[in-house]
Write a structure and sequence with these properties.
This protein is an all-alpha fold. It has two domains: about 110 residues, no CATH class; about 110 residues, no CATH class. The chain is built from 14 helices and no strands. Helix 9 packs parallel to helix 11. The longest helix is centred in the C-terminal third of the chain and has 17 residues. The mean pLDDT is about 95.
Length: about 220
């Protein structure tokens, strides 16, 4: 396929080796080794071309880099309904944290009244990366001016033994502590999260420059 050929033209084998170490859930032979800025450039070019539509139909992909490009192409789709359709079609094929986290559809920002309901559905999924994606979208779009205390219940209700889901819940709550301290600290004080997520949230919050020294000292006393 033409797009795959273009990816191989940008191959960096040393970078492929580096990526494979960061993404242990993917076979190391599936990495072409295209740097993310280069994949982003391709996505911005291809989204305007007809061949991108054919590429989005071709699932599953063989290479990690194809999935990265797929996620970035979805992020460029301007029609909300089309974007949601493509996200739902692609999520079952996402098999690693990097591809999951690269997806950030711009159109979501203009459709927050609709996307919050999808976030609830995604977060509750038993699929690792669908759940992670839902929680990440909540973190990205609903911890600032659109924040509501009730939204914290979405990640708090997710009970998973999967590392990549637990990490995202912790990341979400650590970010929420930085942005919405008074509502979020109650979840830590009342130990509403699993022990691992609770302690990881505290760790990540303490590492954050957005948390005050006083807050960090208080959090240290809440470890369980």
């Amino acid at each position: 396929m033409e797009i795959v050929d273009e990816l191989f033209k940008l191959q960096d084998k040393e970078y492929a080796e580096f990526q494979s170490k960061l993404t242990p859930t993917v076979d190391k032979n599936k990495f072409i080794g295209v740097r993310v800025p280069e994949v982003r450039k391709l996505a911005k070019v291809y989204i305007k071309e007809e061949k991108s539509k054919e590429f989005l139909k071709t699932l599953p992909h063989e290479y990690y880099d194809e999935n990265m490009l797929h996620g970035l192409l979805i992020s460029e789709i301007k029609d909300y309904e089309v974007c949601i359709k493509e996200v739902d079609k692609f999520l079952p094929y996402v098999d690693n944290w990097a591809v999951c986290d690269i997806m950030s559809p711009k159109v979501f920002k203009k459709n927050k009244d609709k996307i919050i309901e999808k976030i609830k559905i995604w977060s509750e999924s038993k699929d690792i990366y669908t759940s992670r994606f839902g929680i990440e979208m909540l973190m990205r779009h609903f911890l600032d001016e659109d924040f509501k205390t009730e939204y914290l219940e979405i990640p708090a209700k997710v009970k998973s033994d999967e590392y990549y889901v637990q990490m995202m819940i912790a990341w979400c709550f650590a970010t929420a502590l930085a942005k919405q301290w008074y509502d979020t600290i109650k979840y830590i004080e009342k130990e509403k999260l699993t022990k691992w997520v609770h302690n990881k949230t505290i760790q990540k919050a303490i590492e954050s420059y957005r948390i005050t020294n006083e807050q960090k000292e208080y959090l240290k006393g809440l470890k369980i």
